[in-house]
Write a structure and sequence with these properties.
The complex is a heterodimer of chains A (245) and B (214). Chain A is 38% helix and 14% strand. Chain A is an alpha+beta fold. A five-stranded mixed sheet of chain A has the order 1-2-3-4-5. Chain B is an all-alpha fold and 214 residues long. Chain B is elongated and about 60 Å long. Classes of the chains: A alpha+beta (245), B mainly alpha (214). At the A-B interface, helix 1, helix 3 and helix 4 of A face helix 3, helix 4, helix 6, helix 7 and helix 9 of B.
């Protein structure tokens, strides 16, 4: 304290100055001298009351419940985190090496999620047999700076972390189109997907959607945007459920 | 199934947040989810009110909870679990705010009558809440974050200063500025007073700087 602070002259005083007094911004000795003068002035007193009323309004703001789809999305992301690491270390290492080779290095979440889900997924590819050889993702893309996630049909879980963060319908474009494609596969889902993103599955352009599937469970669906539709079950390339059983 | 149900029941019955953190560190797979369940609405409100955009708020919370999940085993009970969780959430929100600096906040008009939307008496509680919420969303981010923490969430000035990484005096003066704007927009200040007492921009800047940081 310098003891040199000037007590602002008034009335009138600015609303901001009175708000400073109200919020305890002013040095104590200035506030001590100013407060009785402010309280003696009807206009200034009214400003103090207005600030009090504002505080009451703010205190009274109700809590905002987290929407179900956000809660489900966060639960799914935490479930992915909570999965124990794959016991077969060499497999994990092999995947890391392969991912690096495919240009997916640096996607820590993806690798971690691969370790987490790779061993628990029972994938039921719709229609076609899975190819055992992953092909590199197309490296040229005129639409996006980053190529879509490149996945193999036996490692869908590796994309969970990234797909959950996305709401990119890609070539499906709209929720209606997605709903139509899901219907084709006999999958009913209300509301928006928890996450959706274009991917490549075994080198083929596709779209992965993650949907809520009951208590603590999530459905991973991979769709072929070129063929899927309400009456075309063949457009569902993969459909599997993950999460607590 | 029975054993899983039992584990869940034990987890849910854990008496405190700190117990849940310990259980999580000890490998209980449900402890952290339970902790999130307890606090998610409050954290959602903070994220939404700070960031305004629901998608961004959801992204920030997901990031925050995942990083809390990873860091929880090294949590030391020097602070309350809620404060610790809040700090992680607020930091995730602030990171996002910094990243989107190019998208400016629409400021409230500094001058002008600040006409309230409707006479206060005629409004229901719900309408009032919506109006307060809307007015809060219009504040500049630097004022909104401290007001959300101090005036809505009930944190002390000292805790808020710590959470936001700014001086206590700065928290107070940003709250003061924000409250003055809200008082006008919410119709608590009669226009005559607001007009007469609101100086041109900058008049108080020197005083404010002089007193900030105390």
């Amino acid at each position: 304290m310098t003891g040199m602070e000037r007590v602002p002259m008034g009335p009138p005083w600015s609303v901001d100055l009175i708000a400073d007094l109200h919020a305890g911004v002013l040095p104590p000795e200035v506030a001590a001298q100013l407060r009785p003068r402010v309280e003696a002035d009807p206009d200034a007193r009214e400003i103090l009351q207005a600030l009090d009323a504002t505080l009451e309004d703010l205190h009274a703001l109700p809590s905002i419940p987290m929407p179900d789809h956000v809660a489900a999305r966060i639960d799914a992301a935490l479930a992915a985190e909570a999965r124990p690491a794959a016991p077969v270390v060499s497999l994990d290492e092999a995947r890391k090496r392969r991912n690096r080779r495919l240009g997916l290095g640096g996607a820590g979440v993806l690798v971690a999620a691969a370790a987490a889900f790779g061993i628990v997924l029972a994938v039921s590819p719709g229609g076609q047999g899975p190819s055992n050889e992953a092909k590199p993702a197309p490296t040229t893309s005129s639409q996006n700076a980053t190529p879509p996630l490149a996945l193999k049909s036996d490692q869908l879980g590796s994309a969970v972390g990234d797909v959950l963060k996305a709401q990119n319908f890609g070539p499906l474009e709209t929720p209606d189109r997605l709903a139509g494609c899901l219907k084709g596969g006999g999958i009913t889902s209300s509301g928006n997907p928890l996450g959706i993103s274009p991917i490549t599955l075994d080198g083929k352009d596709a779209v992965m959607a993650i949907l809520p599937a009951g208590l603590g469970q999530y459905r991973l669906v991979v769709l072929d945007p070129k063929t899927c539709g309400p009456d075309k079950p063949e457009g569902v390339l993969a459909n599997t459920t993950i999460g607590a059983k | 199934m029975i054993s899983l149900a039992k584990v869940r029941a034990v987890t849910a019955a854990a008496s405190s947040d700190a117990d849940l953190i310990s259980a999580h560190a000890a490998g209980d797979p449900y402890a952290f989810s339970e902790l999130v369940k307890r606090h998610r609405d409050r954290m959602w409100a903070v994220a939404l009110r700070t960031l305004r955009d629901p998608e961004e708020a959801a992204d920030a919370l997901q990031e925050a909870f995942i990083s809390a999940f990873r860091a929880a085993s090294s949590f030391r009970a020097e602070s309350q679990v809620t404060t610790w969780l809040h700090r992680i959430v607020v930091n995730a929100c602030l990171d996002r705010m910094r990243r989107r600096q190019t998208r400016p906040t629409v400021p409230l008009p500094e001058a002008g009558p600040g006409e309230p939307v409707a006479p206060r008496d005629a409004m229901s509680d719900r309408e009032t809440s919506l109006m307060v919420q809307a007015a809060l969303m219009e504040l500049p981010e630097e004022q909104r974050a401290p007001i959300v923490l101090v005036d809505v969430e009930g944190y002390s000035v000292a805790e808020t200063a710590q959470l936001l990484g700014i001086a206590e005096g700065t928290v107070k003066s940003r709250c003061a500025r924000g409250r003055a704007k809200l008082a006008k927009v919410l119709g608590h200040l009669r226009n005559r007073i607001a007009d007469a007492n609101v100086p041109a921009d900058g008049v108080n800047v020197q005083e404010q700087r002089q007193w900030e940081g105390r």
